[in-house]
Amino acid sequence: MSAAEPAGAYPPEPWDLTGTGRLTAWAVPVGDLPALPAGVRPVVLRGRALAATAFVRYDERGLMAYDELLAAVVVRHGRGLALSITDIWVDSEVSRAGGRGLWGIPKELASFSSPAPDRIGARTDDGPLASVETAPRRLPGLRLPLPLRSHVVQTRDGVTVASPIRATGRVRPARARWTVEPEGALAWLRGASPVTSAVAEDFAMRFGAAPVPRR
Predict the structure, then answer these.
(1) Taking a C-beta distance cutoff of 8 angstroms, is the pair 112, 69 a contact?
(2) Mean pLDDT value of segment 171-176
(3) How confident is the model at residue 3 (pLDDT cuts 50, 70, 90)?
(4) How far is CA 2 from the centre of its chain?
(5) In sequence order, what DSSP letters do the residues of 44-106 get, joined into one string?
(6) d(CA 97, CA 121)
(7) How far apart, in whole angstroms, are the C-alpha atoms of residue 63 and residue 83?
(8) Nearest C-alpha neighbor of 207 from the set 114, 133, 116, 98
(9) pLDDT category, 188, cuts 50, 70, 90?
(10) CB-CB contact of 89 with 77 (8 Å)
(11) Cα–Cα distance, 172 to 186 (Å, whole number)
């Protein structure tokens, strides 16, 4: 925990969250990637890395309710695959403080708007960040048979840290049309090609690990 994030300003880990999400995977030219934590490297195929963007709405069934926009890169960390979140915005001061203090996730604040049920966008005081319009495909949703487990790898206080995540829920293939502000923080996605998109209709996620009891 950094000195800027005092103890008690946010709930301890793990965070149990529930909600819905709109996700797209991208193939990004390696040279366009933002900086990643020390000790990780992007997963690369034919000169392109795999990244993901998502608008997520966490609801009151979980620990807290807030909106989120994020971009992450699929990386190799040790012998496994993980995610590294490069850009992320939320509309919750508590989520911002906890993300930074607990896991080194570089959360910033933004405002979110949904002018229609299939659209959502985010902006900061400096201007728009991104928006997405989604339409589920006429295919059945798929409920994940087992919890998906991975890690998020970030830099916290100058040290690379890996935090566990676990998610369950139902996903449905979707069409998605993203608009990214060309001069904004996500401009590194301008040369990216969308690979696939999905709507997470109802998911539950545990972020972080429970503290180990002292003996």
Answers:
(1) yes
(2) 92
(3) very low
(4) 22
(5) EETTEEEEEEEEEEE-TTSS--EEEEEEEEEEEETTEEEEEEEEEEES-HHHHHHHHHHH---
(6) 22
(7) 22
(8) 98
(9) very high
(10) no
(11) 25
Beta bridge partners of 121: 113, 131
Structure tokens at 125: 């005081």
- Higher pLDDT pick, 115 / 25: 25
3-state secondary structure of 32: helix
| Closest to 26 measured CA to CA, from 196, 150, 171, 199 | 196
Q: Model's pTM, two decimal places?
A: 0.91
- pLDDT > 70 in the chain, percent: 91
Q: Looking at residue 139, what is its pLDDT?
A: 63
The first and second tokens of residue 208, run together, are 């972080």
Burial 28-51 (b: 16+ CB within 10 A, else e): beeeebeebbeebebeeeeebbbb
**In this model, does residue 215 exceed pLDDT 70?**
no
Average pLDDT of the segment spanning 88-114: 97
H-helix or E-strand spanning residue 136: strand 127-136
Residues paired with residue 135 on neighbouring β-strands, in sequence order? 175
Which whole-number Å values give the CA distances from 103 to 85, 87, 144, 156, 201, in the listed order? Answer: 11, 14, 26, 7, 26
Q: How many CB atoms lie within 10 A of CB 200?
A: 22
Question: What letter represents residue 86's amino acid?
Answer: T
Distance CA 131, CA 180 (A): 7
Q: Which of 213, 215, 205 is nearest to 14 (CA)?
A: 205
